[in-house]
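Continuing from the previous page of notes. For each protein in this section, the sequence appears first, followed by its structure tokens. Read the first protein now.
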Amino acid sequence: VLLLRTCLALLASPIYLLSFLGVWEPFCRKVFFPFILEKICVLHDKKSRKHKLELFRNLPDFRSPSGELRLLEIGTGSGSNFQFYPSGCKVTCTDVNPNFQKNLTKNMKKNQHLHYERFLVAAGEDLHQVPSGSMDVVVCTLVLCSVQSVSSTLREVLRVLRPGGAFYFLEHVAAEHSSWKYFWQQVYFPTWKLVFAGCCLTREPWKNLEEAKFSELKIQHISLAMPWTPVEPHIVGYGVK
């Protein structure tokens, strides 16, 4: 693993040099990551569409007694999930990176069946701008891989959800430890994390979800064919507060 990691690091040495000089991170956040994530999301959305349709099918069941559905999305990115939300849903968008605005605005215009409340620049671990118990649903897709702390993010999710509200997730995760997929995830890990803005390949967030205080939790392990990438294993499901 160490030898292959070194070879990969040599191939990516210009990026490591830019990182050492303090240039890569601002360039990645502002230009590279929003650009490449849009391209990856197009492919990922095609592969995950049937799973997302099934996942979000029961969203209307979590409307508040008033009939409203208040939804908070953590790590909204360019808004690729908007198409799956029910008509009239009131959406609050958050992302730690504000540089997705161009594609986010484009997807908002394409999905005018939703009411967009506000956009917050916020990390998943710190949603202090969102009042406790104010949301019916929280959604998080392809985000838990890059938060600083999965456990802290889930604590914030539970705080902002009203009792009876639900947390929906779809995340790429670590492969089975005895598999070749996990071997290659370990090889890619340091360079992948640098290039893709802190994305960790070997996280096992289902363990954090099982430890969180959800009254009901449904998790399914699935595989999405993503050619030439180490992000095939995923989990999908939802938890109820």
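Done with the first. The second protein uses the same format. Note its length before scrolling.
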Amino acid sequence: THNLPPGLEYLNQLDQIIIHQQVELLEAILGTETSSKYEIKNPLGQRVYFAVEENGCFDRKLCSPIRAFTIRIADNAGREVIRVIRPLRCNSCCCPCFLQELEVQSPPGTVAGYVVQNWDPFLPKFTIQNESKEDVLKIIGPYATCGCFEDVDFEVKALDEMTTIGKISKYWSGFVNNVFTNTANFGIQVPVDLDVRIKAVMIGACFLIDLMFFENSLDGL
């Protein structure tokens, strides 16, 4: 573990990561879009990291699902251990030349990997890349992401797209949460021996999926 990026040692023990978006009172009452804040937990519900989105009010209000952002992820001691950077890009299958690409750094300033959207007319598809931009894993979502009162699974697959090794799940939280707060609850399941840098990139992929497919949805309601 001495070769791991500082702060990622704990990910070395996990095969499941829970991401819970915190409810902002102003956003819940007035519908005003505020910077997202997340708790990242282990399967026992214990907080491992805390994440805060940084961007401008203009980005959140006018560019909501495609907005540029920087998400800073800190450990329980307040030390920033992961940084997720998303530029402003297109979010349409009709424009395959300028699709989503997200960079994950750990420690901040050192690239851990990338999440790259792949063009597909029907399915949400992404490639997980390492720091050298070499393909490592694929993420393939369902035809419909509305959920309809159930979880929505994005499968994590080997590069051949045949073998499933994990998943990113959007948990359906119930009528009150989705209608009045639209908060996000996600679970990431990956092999425990997966490189911790790629686990950090998977957390970034989870944030990207949230904004692309669930930011303004009511999850099937």
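What the second structure shows: The chain has four helices and twelve strands. The radius of gyration is 16 Å. We return to this in next week's lecture.
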